[in-house]
């Protein structure tokens, strides 16, 4: 049995195939240009390996509602060439096999739950903080899809008292992503985020926004584990600042695990998404 | 087959029994005083009817984590007599039958999904706005329990620009409950909420806070339906104000159903909770 995986990101598509133990046999990275160009290479890869099922975790927003006419589409993405692209349909036309279909961050959350930081749990949240902020959620062992999929990176947050930066989000200006994704940190201090010293004020402000979002997520879905990925979260000095701020904002209202066990870095690092996709391929085959 | 239900609220316990079609055969309302007094009457009711399973929807916070030592307890409630009360254990000691156990608002969400405003959906959110604000969530046909249960009424919100009221929440001062539950509306304008005219500024401020919370919930769990219950939501002029504000805040970022179909009043009204509890009793019996 061969499982296939596509982690479709805004800058690159990672495609992989594994054996039935989820050991990766081969992987390629394909630049995200236009559907024509990118998908040609995706097809070439899977034509060669003939997987029995493929799990897809895609950048979005995507349509995850099986009752919708545009189920399986990438929808209102700012990447113009990919707007309204019927991704899943095109894959199904090419390969008559079962597919898993979710967001890139849901796939990463699923990967971390089954093989990473949340092994043994039945719920978790995965949050990536990089050029954008995205969140995936697993509840009761399954990725969350409701009417659509979570877009929790755009949560509305309260401003840090010392922060006057207007925010970068084209939809909401100063939502979480607008104030706390990598570009916002860089713009606020006119220095790329990774060049700011670890004791810079920037990290206190960043922790304020992230902790606020985690309090909201905890109050809303109460996951057993919150897992951070993405470039910004490589700044490990953020974690203690987030614990402190989370504690202050929650003020003992609901019980959580010890914060050091509750809010953690991802374990699978760059493999979280692809692992989740392989697991979704396995599920798709078992449920077909 | 007889199903039993307990909707355990902060002011009264409603107990009911139904036949297997969920038709209620008898119900009683018992004041919430101390566990000794209240539970004596609860036991008297069920001793008489001998149900085959009982579903409990309780005020909280409660412990819903089956792995916890205090599973089935009411935990840190401000009602001192009920703090750390082993509710489910006491019921199990008395009756050797299957039990369902969740929050009052989760039970109401489940009732509305199976028999009310969200029939045919697999996910929904139920929000009650009264003396407090509570929210229950059903995802993929099941009420959400993670590490704990949702307490989404305490979401941190941004202030309405004209609102200087400090907020009533003993934990967070100006969280959603602190700014938008019935007592906050009344205190802000020194007039009981129900006496304020329908075109009073109060409702615009109220809609601002509720819409903000709904945007956060939608971005986080993307339910197929959001259902409002509780005394404050009998002010029907709130609904169009909420639609307007929701639209403004979301700014087209994620697709939702038409707002008039998405954000609706509850259908079962005062029976949502008890119906959900009966359904949980039925589930408990089927899964035992």
TrEMBL record, chains A, B:
It comes from Vagococcus hydrophili. It catalyses: D-fructose + ATP = D-fructose 6-phosphate + ADP + H(+). Transmembrane segments: none annotated. It holds the Pfam family ROK. It is an enzyme of class 2 (transferase). Its EC number is 2.7.1.4. Keywords: ATP-binding, Carbohydrate metabolism, Kinase, Magnesium, Metal-binding, Nucleotide-binding, Transferase, Zinc. This is Fructokinase. PROSITE patterns: ROK. PANTHER family: FRUCTOKINASE (PTHR42742:SF3), TRANSCRIPTIONAL REPRESSOR MPRA (PTHR42742). InterPro entries: ATPase_NBD, Carb_Metab_Reg_Kinase/Isom, ROK, ROK_cs. One of its GO terms (molecular function) is fructokinase activity. Its cofactor is Mg(2+). Belongs to the ROK (NagC/XylR) family.
